[in-house]
Amino acid sequence: MILIDALYINNGGGKVLLDYLVKKLEKKYDNVFYIFDSRCSNDFQYVPEHRKVYMKASLVKRYQFYKNNNNKFGIFLCFGNLPPLIKLNLPVFTYFHNRLLINIPKHTVLKNFIMLKLKSLFLKIIVKNTDYVIVQSDIIKQEFLKEIRFEENKILPYPFYEPLNYPNTNKIKNRFIYVSSGEEYKNHKRLLQAFKKAYDLTKSISLVVTIDSSYIKLYEEINILINKGYPIENLGFVSKEKLCLEYAKAEFTIYPSITESFGISIIEAIEGGCKVIGANLPYMHAVCKPSLLFDPLNIDSIENAILTAMNNTLPNTEQKIFNKIDDIISLLT
Q1: What's the distance, CA 164 to chain centroid?
Q2: Residue 197 CB neighbours (<10 A)
Q3: Which ranges carry the Glycosyl transferase family domain (predicted)?
Q4: Which residues pair with 318 in a beta bridge?
Q5: CB under 8 Å to 103, separation ≥6 — which residues?
Q6: Which of 10, 54, 221, 242 is 20–30 Å from 142 (CA)?
Q7: What is the structure's pLDDT at 292?
Q8: Looking at the domain that runs over 172-319, which CATH code has it been given?
Q9: CB hemisphere CA count around 235 (13 angstroms)
Q10: Three-state DSSP state, 170
Q11: Which superfamily, per CATH, for 2-157?
Q12: How many of the other CB atoms lie within 10 Å of CB of 88?
């Protein structure tokens, strides 16, 4: 029996990856048991009840589950960045996809910095409980090795993502899209300021974002700009079908995030035919050769990139990372 431990995964890119992994496994295997975060209790209804448990995100509850049930399984995949809290005598893989735990951005607010630092220290303590760490790129592998003592040949760069089906539609000239959640490091505030300045100059651009109402301040800031007449469309939480349509319509994806472990929406946008206007940071260069780069900490640089994209024919973006979901599944089966 395989255990997929997805505690702590309930939103964002990690949840997107988890959805895809579970669907792939359920199509072919009936010997997989899942620990799902209780915040996902309305999801994964297609998984039989006897092969899943929804659990509150708690170290104590997770420890108790492993202590009481570890002898029921032959292989483990910890999908929530953290290895088991106890050492097991069976193969354990940990899928690490939270770059913030090994590379905290300099401008992180103090409260978040302290929390991330504590989580990072905890990871260093329990990393001995995993046999292998799976990461999403060679850059994350090297950063992991700099921060955490682990055998290099046991860190496996296996990126994966769900391929999407894009409709045939015409691109809308000077339409930019940024598919992302609303955390501070996603850098929406600088993007919005740069977009506002660029629009005031040109009156001929539009922006699509995906911020739901749980990000209260950012959501309100976007609504204020919309009410002032700026052509911003906020999709909020959106279906995959709608998302594919929006990628297909946009001419560019603009990606100002300060840090990413992967940047799944960059890949989605490329495969949807968008040119990437991206932050000049290592994660971006790991995923693709962008059509245009900017300094994500400089509003004027972001604005200039928007204006350059509008007024010039940019080269197509070159994708560097491709789906390795089958390689991951082969490790487990």
Answers
A1: 16
A2: 17
A3: 170-316
A4: 289
A5: 143, 147, 259
A6: 10
A7: 99
A8: 3.40.50.2000
A9: 20
A10: coil
A11: CDP-glycerol glycerophosphotransferase, N-terminal domain (3.40.50.11820)
A12: 18
Per-residue pLDDT of the chain (333 residues), as tens digits, is: 999 999 999 987 789 899 999 999 999 999 999 999 999 999 999 999 999 999 999 999 999 999 999 899 999 999 989 999 999 999 999 999 888 888 887 778 888 889 889 999 999 999 999 999 999 888 899 999 999 999 999 999 999 988 999 999 999 999 999 999 999 999 999 999 999 999 999 999 999 999 999 999 999 999 999 999 999 999 998 899 999 999 999 999 999 999 887 888 999 999 999 999 999 999 999 999 999 999 999 999 999 999 999 999 999 999 998 999 999 999 998
Alpha-carbon distance 305 to 199, whole Å?
Answer: 13
At 312, the amino acid letter reads: N
Instruction: List the domain boundaries for the chain.
Output: 2-157, 172-319
The pair of structure tokens assigned to 241 is 């079908």
3-state secondary structure the chain: CEEEEECCCCCHHHHHHHHHHHHHHHHHCCCEEEEEEHHHCCCCCCCCHHHEEEECCCHHHHHHHHHHHHHHCCEEEECCCCCCCCCCCCCEEEECCCHHHCCCCCCCCHHHHHHHHHHHHHHHHHHHHCCEEEECCHHHHHHHHHHCCCCHHHEEECCCCCCCCCCCCCCEEEEEEECCCCCHHHCHHHHHHHHHHHHHHHCCCEEEECCCCCCHHHHHHHHHHHHCCCCEEECCCCCHHHHHHHHHHEEEEEECCCCCCCCHHHHHHHHCCCEEEEECCHHHHHHEECCEEECCCCHHHHHHHHHHHHHCCCCCCEECCCCCHHHHHHHHC
Token pair in block for residue 226:
């919309």
